[in-house]
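Regression test case RT-17, inverse folding.

Input:
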């Protein structure tokens, strides 16, 4: 069945996380999100109040990040960051797991981290999206174990990437793969049905959006919201 334009817009978390975005650009991004009635904005933490005010009386959720982009903050700091974001009006939190602890296979630490942030979020009627940063996880065992922990704590979403997980390539330059089909399929198969999948990193076109949707993705994080939805309109989506 061909999706409606409205169903496509509700797949999108409009990403407003680039460190160079000015206050005016963040404001414009929130206004664009409101105009197109996307699922949410995912905005830099200090601008949650700005987003809350612009998106008041709309159906667009206010989201932000915790431990972004590398997940290395002390757990106490992540907890305080989550509490502050929720107090400021965030309804959705995208939390980066501690990648070093994952590669160290410290599953008790990671379980405690995910459990703590999830409980804080749910208590405030929010939803938590747990970011794996798959570009850094060279063995699928790490991803499978993280899915198992997220299953245990019944988080709302697991998420492929931050979009900033740059790794050094053979030519010496840095790049990222982001949301790959292989990872999305693995995460969908490994997670319980109640956990939804968010894909982020490299989703720039309508065809990208439709492809990951077909693999079971419920949300995408993208900075290309406007061009994606304009293309959908050109193709006749209504």
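Golden output:
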């Amino acid at each position: 069945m061909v999706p409606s334009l409205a169903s496509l817009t509700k797949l999108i978390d409009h990403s407003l996380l680039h460190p160079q975005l000015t206050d005016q650009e963040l404001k414009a991004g929130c206004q664009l999100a409101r105009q197109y009635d996307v699922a949410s904005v995912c905005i830099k933490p200090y601008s949650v109040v700005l987003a809350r005010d612009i998106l008041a009386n709309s159906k667009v959720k206010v989201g932000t990040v915790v431990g972004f982009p590398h997940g290395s903050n002390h757990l106490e700091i992540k907890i305080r960051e989550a509490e502050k974001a929720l107090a400021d009006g965030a309804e959705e939190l995208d939390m980066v797991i501690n990648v070093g602890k994952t590669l160290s296979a410290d599953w008790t630490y990671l379980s405690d981290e995910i459990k703590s942030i999830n409980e804080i979020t749910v208590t405030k009627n929010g939803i938590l999206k747990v970011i794996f940063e798959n570009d850094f996880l060279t063995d699928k065992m790490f991803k499978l174990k993280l899915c198992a922990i997220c299953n245990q704590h019944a988080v709302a979403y697991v998420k492929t990437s931050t979009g900033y997980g740059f790794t050094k390539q053979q030519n010496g330059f840095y790049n990222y793969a982001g949301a790959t089909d292989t990872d999305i399929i693995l995460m969908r198969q490994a997670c319980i049905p109640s956990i939804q999948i968010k894909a982020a990193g490299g989703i720039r076109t309508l065809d990208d959006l439709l492809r990951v949707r077909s693999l079971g993705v419920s949300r995408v994080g993208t900075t290309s919201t406007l061009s994606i939805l304009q293309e959908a309109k050109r193709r006749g989506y209504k």
